[in-house]
């Protein structure tokens, strides 16, 4: 276990007018796993991600980050924003944006440049792009810059929130492949937040459903589907009868089997290489 939440609540506002966006969430995240957190729009999944990343205060409950390794006194959880355009400084070059996250890890300018070039290569960006500004890049390229900037801090946990929702289909696949490669190369711990069940299933090892601010447990095997349930029209559901009912505030995540996932990813990479070479 690297990170745990115990009955965590997040409120907006105070007093009688306060709105509770996250209700009594209890979960445990193990090192080296990818947790897919899915739910409808407005369910509180992004707010929960922001709380884990330290961007929103926890109103009650315990968010235990004591087991996370700290590096250079920086918070060990990094957040990748959904809208990279508003998350990147428009006045800075791409190289400076990424270098800002490296900080004291680089001893001199030459080493800093090497680290920046390596990070750009990891997210499939040409290092010559470092001299450009965010406005000169496409949406997919900006999202990859945001990923590289988060990696520059060398975080213990990455929180990615709807990072493919605004991208077209081809770029969508490229970003997913980059995240999968980073998981394989760095054995990263990730929290992948999405309303798209199939995208989350493609990347994640574990699943949690968060209907209306509460976390519900998946069934064994972890294969999500859309369905219609009592009181939750069009909600995210798990196969009926596949697992025991669990109170929304108490999460027990079952390990999801991912047979053939690596083969599917390699197949996608092969198709991309052939497309780039003009084979089809």
Task: Furnish the topology, listing elements before pairings.
Elements: E1 3-12, E2 19-29, E3 34-38, H1 45-52, E4 60-64, E5 77-80, H2 84-87, H3 94-102, H4 109-122, H5 139-152, E6 157-161, H6 169-186, E7 189-194, H7 197-203, E8 206-209, E9 225-226, E10 236-237, H8 261-277
Helix pairs in contact: 3-4, 3-5, 4-5, 6-8
Description:
- This protein has 280 residues and is α/β, with parallel strands linked by helices.
- The protein is 32% helix and 19% strand.
- It contains eight helices and ten strands.
- The strands form three sheets. It has a five-stranded parallel beta sheet, sandwiched between helices. A three-stranded antiparallel beta sheet has the order 2-1-4, covered by helices on one side. It has a two-stranded antiparallel sheet with strand order 9-10.
- Strand 1 (3-12) and strand 2 (19-29) form a beta hairpin.
- The longest helix is centred in the middle third of the chain and has 18 residues, at 169-186.
If you average the pLDDT, what whole number results?
75
Helix-strand category: alpha/beta
- Distance between the first and last residues' Cα: 45 Å
Trace the largest sheet across and list its strands: 5-6-7-3-8
Sequence of secondary-structure elements: EEEHEEHHHHEHEHEEEH
Helix content: 25-40%
Which regions have little confidence, pLDDT < 50, spanning 5+ residues? 216-262
Task: Provide a count of the helices.
Answer: 8
> How many strand segments?
10
Descriptors:
single chain; alpha/beta; 3-stranded antiparallel beta sheet; 32% helix; globular
